[in-house]
Specification:
Layout lengths: L3 E10 L2 E11 L4 E5 L6 H8 L7 E6 L2 E2 L5 H7 E4 L11 H6 L14 H13 L15 H14 L4 E5 L7 H16 L3 E5 L3 H7 L2 E6 L2 E6 L1 H4 L2 H8 L1 E6 L6 E7 L3
Parallel strand pairs: 3-8, 3-9, 6-7, 7-8
Antiparallel strand pairs: 1-2, 1-4, 4-5, 9-10, 11-12
Helix pairs in contact: 4-5
Amino acid sequence: MVTIRAQGLSVRLGRHPAVNGIDLDLEPGQLVGIIGPNGAGKSTLIRALLGLVKRESGTVLLDGADISHLGRREIARRIAYLPQGQTLHWPLAVERLVALGRMPHLGPLSRLSAGDEAQVDAALTRADVLHLKGRVATELSGGERARVLLARALAVGAPALIADEPLAALDPGHQIDVMDLLKAEARAGSLVVTVLHDLGMAARYCDRLVLMDRGALVADGAPLKVLTEASLASVYGISACIDADRDWPLILPMGRIKP
C-alpha cells in the first residue's frame, strides 16, 4: 500500500507559479481524479508528487519519507506513471515496449524472468491489447498506442498508479474500458490518481475529485460536492446541467458564461 502526502507544495516554472501551496493526502483504495481547465497546474502537480520537477517550497512524502531522498528506481517500483502525450521514437514490438515496465525490478543486464513475462502478458490483457503482440508500436493508431502505454504502466505491478489524461485519443468504448480498469485497480486496493478533462467520466467513476484553478486547489471531495453549478461557473466559466438522479451522475456542459 502506498500513501502520498503533499504539504504546502509550490512549484514555479520559470517565472510562472504553476502550483501554489497545495496540501493533499492520497490514500490507497481510491480512484482520485484531478480536474481543472487547461493551465490549471494538474500535470505539474502530479509531476511534483513524483519528484520529477523541482519544488519551490513544501514537502512530498511517499509512505512518510521525503520523496527527494528516494531513488528513482525505488519511486518507480511504488508508483507507476503514465505521462500524457508520449511520442514513440523506436520501432519496438508491442510486447517489448510493455516489458519496459518491468525495468524498475531488474538489475543491470538482467533478462526478463518467467514471472516478468507473465506480468507483461497480464498487463496486455488488462489493457485489451494482447491481440497487438507482434505489432510494431510506432505503426499503431493513436488509440492503440495509448492503451499499449497504459499496459506498460500496469506491467510495473506497483501499488499506485498515476495516469495523466489516459482517455486522450480513445474512442468512447475504450474510454469506458480504461475507466473500468482504473476503478477496478482502486477497488483492489491500489491508489489510482488520474488527470481528466471529461467531467462526466470524472463524476461517474472517481471516488474523489481534486479541482484546480490557476495552480491552487479550490475544491476536494466527493464528485457531486466538487462539481456544482457554482464551481463550474467560477473555474471553467461554463453553465452545466447536473443530474444526480441516475445510477451515476450526469454532468453536461451547456455553454460559456458571458462576462
